[in-house]
Design brief:
- It is built from 2 helices and 15 strands.
- Helices cover 6% and strands 45% of the residues.
- The protein is mainly beta.
- The chain has an 8-stranded antiparallel β-barrel with strand order 1-5-6-7-8-12-13-15.
Length: 220
Amino acid sequence: MLAGCGKSESEKEYVLKGDYQTQNPLTVTAPILYTRQGPVTNPQVIQQFLARLNNTGFVFGTSQTLSSNSLLSFRDDKTASIVFQAPQGTAIEARLEEKTSDRIVLVGRDSIAYSQAPNPVLVVQNINQYKVAGRCRPVPPASGFISPCKGAVRYPINRTADGQLRIPLLSFLHKVTYPGGMASNSGINVWGVFNSAVLGQLGATDTLVVQTKELPLLKQ
């Protein structure tokens, strides 16, 4: 005799339709520092590290307000438009790439041109789980030239158990030291999801600080 296999409410198929406006306040988590030895959550240790790089308040913050205003419009559960700085901004047309009970992923219909420096740092290149889905023209690293790339931007959206939509935001600072110097890269409120797999790519001289936020989308 087979047991019942009905879906829970959160797993049932849902329809995406209508307009959603970004709405403050954000949900803000505390920054976490990672090294190859593991995570560090002590705020004092993290602030001392950031102060040495003069980045105490530049990349990471506790503000629950985001000044930019975005509008997300679902049309037929397969296509959508995204307007940054609404209502004056230009609409970005997107299609549905993935839909699960807890996440939606949109991908831009039009490809964008971007560049990639030679010998890219894997940690920074892969920190966003939903990075641009593109291809780059190979360029010999020794040439020092930048690789021209083309691809489509992906926009993940988190969905809570009660059906609320939230835009995941990612801020990070990565520092690596090497004989004779150091290099650092950072990103502020990048639309994306932290890819924890990059922690396995940290070397002995890598330090990574990550902060995640969520921006609610209110149905109009």
